[in-house]
Amino acid sequence: MRILGIDSSTEITAIALLNEGRLEGDIRCSHTQKHSATIIPALIFLLRARELTLNDIDAIAISTGPGAYTGLRVGLATVLGLVVENNIALVTVNTLKAMAYLFAPNPFLIAPILDAREGQVASALFNCQDGLPQELLPAECRKLADFVKLIPVEKTIIFTGEAIHTYKDEITGLLGERARFASPNNIYPSAVSVAMIGTMKYECSDFTAPDSIEPVYMKKFKTR
Predict the structure, then answer these.
(1) What is the spatial distance between Cα 151 and Cα 182, in angstroms, rounded to a whole number?
(2) What is the pLDDT of residues 164-182, one digit of tens each?
């Protein structure tokens, strides 16, 4: 069972391939190139490197946000074309959940945050102690201080996501030693995590019909 994971919800294009849960390839393309110029070439490179074609792929797992409008739109349009044309199963994965899964299992709470502009972050809180992230606070766009107020007291939290570049000092001021931060190589959404969650959903036949996919664009996700 081969699952292809794709994430284009931020400035990074990420593609990963799993075979029976084992990693066969992982590509990340920098933000200096547009998603439209990187997804298909990266996919072709990955498949050729493994001497595979799309006929060897059982399902494609795609992150559906929250994320940037352009990246999600390009990624979803590309994947929809691939699954329809090649009759490949489709599974969808929440971007923040996939980010949290990078740290599982973990005794600390995981808080992925993405910069939603205008002083807000797309944020959620997960318990990853038993492996698969369990949502404690649902994904919403909020002021960082409002999000922090909702975090259970006396809990240590690992913050991840590119927004920690902007909000690290504020987080530390609000939470002190309770706040920990992901290393720079783990702050962006991971296609490996998308593929791993996608594998579990595939095994449960938790598929998404191509005509029912619902991306979460941050610009539509914001609250007043």
Answers:
(1) 18
(2) 999 999 999 999 999 999 9
